[in-house]
Amino acid sequence: MTPSTTVRSPLRLYGRDDELACLGSLLELLRQGGGGALVVAAPPGLGRTALLRAAADAHRDRGPVLYATAASTGRAVPGGGPVVPLGPSPAFGPPPAAPYPVTTPEALVRRLREPGAGRPLLVCADDAHTWDPASRSALALTAGRLGPGSRTAVLLSAADGTAFPGLPTLHLAPLDEAAASALLDRLTGGTPLGGSRGADLGPVPGAAPGAAFGPVPGADPGEACGTVRSAGLGAAPRPAPEAAFGTPSGADPGAASAAAPGADGIGIDPVVRAELLREAAGNPRLLTGLTGRLTPGQLAGRTALPFPLPGGEAVLAAHAERLAGLPDRTRALLLLAAAAQEHEPDGAGADALLLLRAGARAGLPRDFLDRALLGATATEGLLQRAGSRVHFAHPLVARAVLHHAPWPHRRAAHALLATLLAETGDRASPCAPSTPSPDAPAAVPRPGPAVPLAALVQRACAAPGPDAALAARIEAAAGGPLPHAERSAALARAALLSVGPTLRAARLAAAAEQAGLAGDPSRARALLARAGPRTAGATGPGGESAQGLAPYVHGMLALRSGPAADAREALLAAAALLGPHDPRRALDALLGAAEAAWAAGDALGYLDAMNRLGRTPPEAGLEQYRAGMCAVLEGRTAEGHALLRHCLDPAGDPGAPAALLRAGAAALVLGDVAAACRAGARALAAVRTRGPDALLPQALEHLAYAELRAGRHSGARTHALEGLHAARRTGQPNSSAHLHAVLALAASVEGPAEACAAHADAALAGAGPHGLAQAATLATWARGRADLASGRPGEAAARLAPLVGTGPGRGHFAARMLAVPCWVEAAVLGGRQHEESRELHAAVDEFASWAARTADPGAPAQLARCRALLAPADEADARYAEALAHHGRAGGDFERARTHLLYGQWLRRRRRTREARGPLRDALVAFQRRSARAWADRAAGELRAAGEPVGAPRKAADGPTAALTPQQLRIARCVAEGATNREVALRLSLSPRTVDHHLRNVFAALGIRSRTELARLLAG
């Protein structure tokens, strides 16, 4: 495709580069004298009209354009689409003074049947699926015959591809996140109009900012796409008393008519941004409508968002147009299906058995229900069954059904479903709290028969207005043992029914808490945004709960996805507010603050949070954990360890995930890695069985880290990968950073080096902005260990020295000691033993103190290895023997193999070559058994240098390097990487003169004269 035929639109089409290229290919074919047809299929709101207009604008200078649009009332009737010829005049300018000439579809078909003559003709038929079947068939038959020599191309837009079977179809998908964000920036003034995030298409002068792809005079400005189920789109027109449902107290009453303030260039709150993108789900027209109805204060997060969000009415109306022509019984079933989703979590669909019972109770024929729920043909594909669940083919269709159903019909559907759900009695909870709600003391009934939460929610959907008594019953029922997503949806419904703004805010905060536990932080933040500004000092019913609960939820969300210091402060503040009236959440807030401080490497902050926890003594097991951790950090190690040993087998509920995770943490502090693995496995099983979903990444992280400490690198990698997927799914970037660090450590053993670097970089990228010192320490340690495996001790020492030192770059207080053995090894192999002798001995002394306090079985062996590296020649042999003896008692193939490798290197350097082969051979076998490929390569190189053949080194089987000896090839590779002779000598335990001698022989054997030539030869 040449640039002259690329479709260029005067509108900014966000995220449509591929679609524009496809249209450009058709226009290029037309320019060359050919022809063809293409159907642009998309549900309302995705911009199919804008794409047709873009194609028409691109072609108008090359030939005539016939543009057909469906009349507003012409649905499936002959002649329902007037055709507008567009000539070389601006296609998207102001409407002409006189109406365009109009022709019928039959005339259009006759025109297409004429042989191509003159300039190429482009025919655009918008909303062609609304034409009558005969016209559609004729148009499809004629368009399908266009080919070489026809000089005619036909572009059709339709709601789906079924209206024109056999024709090539371009299906429009929702905008991706980047494109939707760019559009939102444009609508709110977040980026300059000339920004590069959209397609290279400028704005239309005078165009309203609300058009998803830019408005076109006389055309529908957006044209739909899929969006997730949204309460913001679900408010059907209701009687006047329901006005309280639309805008919560404190919202700007002018929000309904406020235009998008893009020209003002105001900022948009990140939570509001996420909620708008979530509600629109890639539908540009819907995103435009939602944004255009919010005030500047709401966009900036200073005012509570209206609930439900206004602005989706036009998109719903476009979807509802398809429903108008359906039979009555089909529309009745669709209404029941849409209503049955209201008590379910987002995306769960409806229960097929419940729908079957509801349809039968409503008088729908059984054969129709079977065909509709099993075959979907009776509903024209609008309903789809997946197992025992029924889903709408497009989520917006369900919203449109509810929005446009007459209120009496909708209320009757909800009442019928409530009756059926009450009859089943599943998931029942007490229908009222044991004490009256202060929201409406006189209206709350006494505790009565158990009523399912789902039935109560259906009753709420049928309520004509706020209902304090029903809201209290829903709130009480939502406290039962139900999935967190269901509890969140129910509490949000209770908030809608609440009368007072304070109680409404408290219930929205409670709904946000449950959404967070369900692993849906974006919904949690959206619910908090609907609660409005902080409610400190709030009075009235629910005021005390509202004061502390919202900060608590904010803090817990920040703990998983924000700066650790911010999370700590928020949770400390929440604990102070919650303490007098909600001690359980206050305790959880303090534990969360302590966790945030730990992640940030703030030992004093951790002690502060844990000491505050001790002011209100918790249950015995938790108190032992608190006191033990504080004692360890305060230097009372023996006392702390004694207390923490009581936590390894938690009392009370043996399957409580939080208690098991604390048991695993206590075991790691003790150094009992076997107990840590057991506790981690039990915690993971408990989370998988009982939830909450939000805890799954942490359970997998704890287990993976324990397995790393135990030397089970493959298991650690497997669990960390699963945890990384869970963290991404549940929106927890802080957990992702920690899991990337674990994966980097695993890759520093098993390789490849590129994987270690990628995971470490990802961990550091997340840890830096959020102050996650533990993740940063582990990631840096992993990079240093990978450098050691690759034979780069100088780089490893440079990375690790700040971690184990006492300066500003000091590593995390609980992890820095683990990196000491690697730093000592790197410094000694890198030739820095003498210049950093004092620092090395100080670090080893500190490591010795730590090893004496920990129960880690590998610590004594690593300490002996460090002392062997620093020992004079007459002592080193005994130190290595001591280290290997400790390894024999402790187990752990990988660390024992590292000691064998270092011992063999030392023996070879002392010219005890024959003795060196045994330890080096043991190291090679152990590394191979652990799949530590880079380490095995290093051991194999040492063994070859000791005179024992190991097999052909990598990349040496053929080519000019085949003539080199193993030692020459090792030196050549190091030089090709940029190492100096001295650095090569340090890396390979040789003298610089020996390296120089071998390098001269390498140059002679390969016929080269420079290091540059050598690097090129080995790279090729």
Give a brief rundown of this model.
This protein has 1020 residues and is mainly alpha-helical. The strands form 3 sheets. The protein has a 6-stranded mixed sheet with strand order 3-2-4-5-1-6, sandwiched between helices. The chain has a 3-stranded antiparallel sheet with strand order 7-9-8.
Beta-strand fraction estimate: under 5%
Helix content: 55-70%
Instruction: State the secondary-structure class.
Output: mainly alpha
Average pLDDT value? 78
Distance between the termini: 36 Å
Number of strands: 11
Report the major sheet: 6 strands, mixed
Gyration radius, in Å: 35 Å
Figure out the total of helices.
Answer: 45
Question: How do the strands line up in the largest sheet?
Answer: 3-2-4-5-1-6
Globally, the shape reads globular
Unreliable stretches (pLDDT < 50, length at least 5) are 1-10, 72-103, 191-265, 427-449, 535-540, 953-957
